[in-house]
Write a structure and sequence with these properties.
Residues 36-212 form the EngB-type G domain. Strand 5 (122-130), helix 4 and strand 6 (153-158) form a beta-alpha-beta unit. Helix 1 (4-17) packs across helix 6. A 7-stranded mixed sheet has the order 1-3-4-2-5-6-7, sandwiched between helices. The chain has one domain (4-211): P-loop containing nucleotide triphosphate hydrolases (Rossmann fold). It is 37% helix and 19% strand. The protein has 6 helices and 7 strands, in the order H-E-E-H-E-E-H-E-H-E-H-E-H. The chain is α/β, with parallel strands linked by helices. The two termini are 22 Å apart. Bound molecules: guanosine-5'-triphosphate and magnesium ion (MG). The site of magnesium ion (MG) has 5 residues, from helix 2.
């Protein structure tokens, strides 16, 4: 018999083996695509690696625009996955970007919060956390909002290539413990590096799990 884990990994691989296409950018809620297929959203602080992770996950170099400058992604970007269409990935603007103008920060915050709270087809939000920095209070604010609204989310550590194995394990343990206190959080976290490809097979399986 094929182990359950291998079946999940294969399903995740297949999901992203076919077509992946940019659909549209939505600067405001009235421009969202029709809520016709399941969605998985990528949220996190500015520069945490959301766009890079979408590129690594889909094996495309520049599907989502990444940049060394925080504040690169300014709208909700939708990507169609599968042919026929199976799901959408949503790349979001970052939060917690101290240097951005106040009115822009406010606009992004409302856009992110309104989308996450109101989107019926949203199956899971992935909250990306930089392996070097761990969870910050802005991340906790988002988690609290999602807990209160009973919207399912899961933590994904990014840039794991930037920290030594021992420290990484400590961070994983601390975050796993913290996540147990959050009612809407998926208990197991994922560790990734878009740079090295670490954790991509697991992340594809996690996206597959969220939409079935
Ligand atoms: N070493 C390393 N660098 C990474 C990794 N993922 C992303 N980066 C770098 O981090 C920077 C930010 O990446 P983005 O993907 O643009 O981050 P973002 O979260 O989409 O940023 P905003 O759209 O501005 O919120 C870029 O310089 C990336 O090359 C990783 O796994 N390892
Ligand atoms: Mg981005």
């Amino acid at each position: 018999m094929i182990p359950e884990k291998d079946i999940r990994l294969e399903a995740g691989r297949k999901l992203f083996a076919g077509a992946v296409n940019f659909l549209k950018s939505s600067p405001a809620l009235e421009f969202l695509p029709a809520p016709s297929v399941p969605e998985v959203a990528f949220a996190g602080r500015s520069n945490v690696g959301k766009s890079s992770l979408i590129n690594a996950l889909t094996n495309r170099n520049s599907l989502a625009r990444a940049s060394t400058t925080p504040g690169r992604t300014q709208e909700l970007n939708f990507f169609d996955v599968g042919e026929p269409l199976e799901m959408r990935l949503v790349d979001m603007p970052g939060y917690g970007f101290a240097k951005a103008p106040k009115d822009i920060v406010k606009r992004w915050k409302w856009l992110i919060n309104d989308y996450l709270r109101g989107r019926a087809v949203l199956r899971r939000t992935l909250i990306l956390i930089d392996s070097r920095h761990g969870i910050k209070d802005v991340d906790r604010d988002l988690m609290k909002m999602l807990d209160d609204a009973a919207i399912s989310y899961r933590v994904v550590l990014t840039k794991s290539d930037k920290v030594k194995a021992e420290l990484l394990q400590k961070t994983v343990d601390a975050i796993t413990t913290e996540m147990r206190q959050h009612p809407a959080a998926f208990p197991e976290i994922l560790v990734t590096s878009s740079e090295k490809g670490t954790g991509m097979a697991e992340l594809r399986a996690a996206v597959y799990d969220a939409i079935i």
